[in-house]
Write a structure and sequence with these properties.
208 residues, mainly alpha, Arc Repressor Mutant, subunit A, Tetracycline Repressor, domain 2, 2 domains, 10 helices, 0% strand
């Protein structure tokens, strides 16, 4: 019996392409102002002027200013990638693969933006605080895929704990990397993080 070919994904509509272009313009303007003049200079009005849109448009796309540097379209891609991981793969290994791929893609596509985001996480308290909230939102989205892969309900307590713990630990690794002037290899730190989650901590020999 011949397997049916999957239906091709329809191309984005003109409206969706315009929305993506506008979001990209707002991000680019924000990155430029923040990199050249600092985060305080990246006001709503300055961002709107640089992106050639109205302030209301900026707010419509990014109700919270910090989200301009913290959010992107990766959540949907990560959710799809998680669902596409090999059947039977341990959930922690699936998350490792998906997060590492997202990080590598971000640095390949927009290395300067990724570094600026890391610097703002350390220097700007509001960005650091918002990072916690956006990580939680990402966790709720990925928990759906984890639940499906493990045969559990999306609101299963163990699924929520597992996903939140894993993403929280990976976020902390990113902060650790940023605090140390981004000198370490971030993917290596993320791998260490997953290994620590898997094995836990042990007391050194001879220590009471």
């Amino acid at each position: 019996m011949t397997a049916m070919a999957a239906e091709p994904t329809p191309p984005p509509s003109l409206r969706e392409r315009k929305k993506t272009k506008t979001r990209a313009a707002i991000r680019k303007a924000t990155y430029r102002i923040a990199a050249d003049e600092g985060w305080d200079a990246a006001t709503l009005e300055r961002i709107a002027e640089a992106a050639e849109v109205s302030p209301s448009t900026v707010v419509r796309y990014f109700p919270v200013r910090e989200d301009i540097v913290l959010t992107d379209e990766n959540d949907a891609l990560m959710e799809a990638a998680l669902r596409a991981r090999p059947a039977g793969e341990e959930p922690l290994e699936s998350l490792r693969a998906v997060v590492l791929e997202a990080v590598r893609a971000a640095f390949a596509e927009e290395p300067e933006a990724a570094r600026l985001r890391a610097r703002l996480m350390v220097e700007i308290p509001s960005v650091r605080a918002r990072l916690t909230e956006t990580t939680a939102a990402t966790g709720r989205r990925l928990a759906r895929a984890v639940a499906e892969r493990t045969g559990r309900a999306a609101d299963d307590l163990e699924v929520r704990i597992f996903t939140a713990a894993a993403l929280g630990a990976l976020r902390e690794a990113a902060v650790y990397w940023a605090e140390r002037d981004r000198a370490d290899d971030l993917p290596a730190l993320l791998n260490r993080t997953v290994d620590t989650l898997r094995s836990g901590l042990t007391t050194p020999p001879g220590r009471p």
